[in-house]
Amino acid sequence: MPADALSDPSTLTTHTPPSGSNLSSTLSLLLVFFLVAAGAIGGGTLYFRSESAEVYADASRQLELISELKQRQLTQWRLDRLGDAEVLKQRNQRSRPVQAVVTTNDAPSRQDVEGWLSAYTDAYNEYDRVFVLDSEGKRRLSVPSDAAAPADFLVRAAQAAMADGQARLTDFYLDDTDRVPHLALVSPIPAPSGGSAPGAMVLRIDARKFLYPMLAVEQQDSDTGETQLVRREGDDVLFLNPLRFAPDSALSLHASAADKARLATMAGIGTTGLARGLDYRGQAVLGFITHVPESPWVLITRIDVAELDAGLNRHLYLVTTGVILLLSAVGAALLLWRHDQQMRGYRRQAELAAALSSSEERLRLALASARQGLWDLDLKTGAAIVSPEYAVMLGWEPAGFVESLDSLRNRIHPDEIGRAHV
């Protein structure tokens, strides 16, 4: 190396941190990031699971509350109708016009009975037809007077009431005349002196006027919630009311009792309480099943699982977005911290380089003032670094002087080679 190399600061080499230090720092940052990521993902997962459980628990509570409310309403409705039947039974036993209609069927009695029955149906518009039948099931009177003959189902119900003397509320049936779902209130007309009833009064109920609207679930925040009324019928389960997504289903839609996955089938075979299954559309639903006391009816209140999951998917999107934003922020913070640490290292290296340059400059000046030379040999390469003063001491111009181990040997007197050890 030329003898003036030590006088040029550009020949100085800055200190570079070992690659192992950089690797360790990078691994530490990755470890921190992965720990934060694991915590964020784990926390988000726990939150989502908790939110999911809360959503389903809240839906279950709502279904149970609605089911209990509808059950109480249906039970009270049945009791009210049976109360009407008992009142009519007692009145008919004391009413001479009614007794006369079913026995002699004279015109004045008919006119009197038609008048108060018309007023009665006007006051209680749930009853759309009234029939007075004699002991043989023949119609003696009807309100309105132009009403079609009573369905065979009603005639049989009236004969059963006359036979046992008990007022009764029939189940749902499709009337032969209009193919519309009806029920009927049947009240026997007791004989004044006892014995078998000479007739019966049948009040037909249009389920569409009050009963079906009562079953409708008003859930403004639900797109799929509904209440269903079913009963077991042989090997099938029959839907008794119109359904939200099948308006013409009343008394026409069946579910097979062999299809155990259907919620209606579960209700038909005696399952009660909270249940999950498939509805009449084949959709997965969450429902609550309860029996209506003193009746063959089973009440189902249900909601689509897809609707519940849609709300959860929104929560999942928010949680995922939050986790991604958090990890992005943490990653950016770690990168900025890493960049800052690198800049600090570079500044420290520059400071060390400047200090080294200053130190060597002072050494060079000290050697020049003392007229002392500096000689540094690289044992691996055989190259030597010398100061300008060293070249001057040997009588060379510093700019052109290049020192090496071989040139050093050449300047040693042959007689001194053995003692020089070079």
Task: Walk me through the structure.
This protein is of the alpha+beta class and 422 residues long. It is 49% helix and 18% strand. The protein has ten helices and 14 strands. The chain has helices spanning 19-94, 96-103, 107-123, 152-164, 211-215, 263-268, 305-369, 388-393, 405-411, 417-420; strands at 127-134, 139-143, 168-169, 173-174, 181-189, 199-206, 226-233, 236-239, 254-256, 273-278, 284-291, 298-304, 375-377, 384-386. Strands 1, 2, 3, 4, 5 and 6 form a six-stranded antiparallel sheet that branches. The protein has a six-stranded antiparallel sheet with strand order 9-8-7-12-11-10. A hairpin with a 6-residue loop joins strand 11 and strand 12 (298-304). Helix 1 (19-94) packs antiparallel against helix 7 and helix 2 packs across helix 3. The longest helix has 76 residues, at 19-94. It is rod-shaped.
| Fraction in beta strands | 15-25%
Query: From the alpha-carbon coordinates, what is the Rg to the nearest angstrom?
Result: 51 Å
Distance between the termini: 18 Å
Instruction: Provide the residue-averaged pLDDT.
Output: 84
Describe the structure concisely for a colleague.
It is built from 10 helices and 14 strands. The chain has 422 residues and is α+β, with helices and mostly antiparallel strands.
